Amino acid sequence: MMKIRKPAAAGMFYPSEADSLTTDIQAYLNSISLLDDWNPAGFIVPHAGYIYSGPIASYAYRHLTGLSFDKVVIVAPSHFDSFDGLSIYSGEVLETPIGQVDISVEDRDRWVEIDGIFSSELGFRQEHSLEVQLPFLQHVLKPGWQVLPIMMGYQNREVIDLAEEILKTYFNQRSLVIISSDLSHYHPYNEAREIDLRFCKLVEENDLDGLWNAYDNRQVEACGFGPIYAFLSAISGRENISVKLLDYRNSGDTAGFKNQVVGYCAIGAFWQD
User: Fold this and answer.
1) Are strands 146-152 and 86-89 parallel, antiparallel or unpaired?
2) DSSP secondary structure code for residue 10 in this structure
3) Banded model confidence at residue 9, pLDDT cuts 50, 70, 90
4) In this predicted model, what pLDDT tens digit does every residue of 166-218 receive, in sequence order?
5) What whole-number distance in Å separates Cα of residue 150 and Cα of residue 192?
6) How do strand 93-96 and strand 4-5 relate by DSSP bridges?
7) What residue spans define the domains of the chain?
8) How far apart are CA 49 and CA 201, in angstroms?
């Protein structure tokens, strides 16, 4: 029997009805002015409720409108389950109100041969961080792609290195990499901007040592720091990929109060001609 993961965040983080969901997504996309014609390799995008982070995520997803890929690899942090290693969903399908996305079972079965990577429901059961990316992808991409859904548990160096090993093989013209992460949590508005813009600057400058040290010393924050670091490490030194900050805002800019905010960024990795 086919194993299908039903949506856990529908009706909370985004609308549970397909028509309302697609209308909201398209409205976010329409709010963005014309973008440069860059060729995307991957993105770092936020994962909060759409009213908070949807406008920022759209700066990434707008670049994907009408594009076609064979595989989409999503790496996201686990907020609810604690575990060591990388969990790839053990079923065949991920479902949202828009429809179903097939999991690349072939890719999953290849990666779980490596110690520290396993097939499981662990990290997926009530988690939103990966799920909220799917409706955007379903809406903007041409049909026919498969997903490799990866949840990261403990974000130690060994696990980050495992994720980097996987991601290196998917930076090609037929694959897309999506990293799910918010930035700082629950600081006052101006303090959050300072923390988050320091983070974004280090990312754009490809200063991996500086980024690691800043995170280790609590000068920057990101719930998906491990997935982000694996993403940046996988493309470090590749002269044919450049990294650009597309948008930074926080919940105080979109739909929340300014006394305690959560930071969101959209960062793109683009192929260079």
Assistant:
1) antiparallel
2) B
3) very high
4) 999 999 999 999 999 999 999 999 999 999 999 999 999 999 999 999 999 99
5) 28
6) parallel
7) 4-271
8) 25
Residue with tokens 């700066």: 59
Domain 4-271, what architecture?
A: 3-Layer(aba) Sandwich (3.40)
Instruction: Give the strand pairing for 71-77 and 175-180.
Output: parallel
User: Taking the CB of residue 236, how many other CB atoms lie within 10 A of it?
Assistant: 12
Helix (H) or strand (E) holding 86: strand 86-89
Record the tokens describing residue 174, joined without a space: 């037929």
Q: What is the pTM of this model?
A: 0.98
Question: Residues 217-240: what's their mean pLDDT?
Answer: 97
Q: pLDDT per residue over 12-53, tens digit each?
A: 999 999 999 999 999 999 998 866 778 999 999 999 999 999
- For the chain, state the CA radius of gyration: 17
Dihedrals φ, ψ of 254, to 5°?
-110, -65
The CB density around residue 213, as the number of other CB atoms within 10 Å, is: 13
Interstrand relation of 261-271 and 185-187 (parallel, antiparallel or unpaired): antiparallel
Reported for 36-41, long-range contacts at CB under 8 A and 24+ positions apart, including other chains, are 38/63, 38/244, 38/268, 38/270, 38/271, 39/270, 39/271, 39/273, 40/64, 40/67, 40/176, 40/268, 40/269, 40/270, 40/271, 41/171, 41/176, 41/177, 41/235, 41/241, 41/269, 41/270, 41/271
Both tokens of 131, joined, read 């799920």
- DSSP secondary structure string, 87-149? EEESSSEEEETTEEEEB-HHHHHHHTTSTTEEEESTTTSS--TTTTHHHHHHHHSPS--EEEE
Output the six-digit token pair for 37: 């014609």
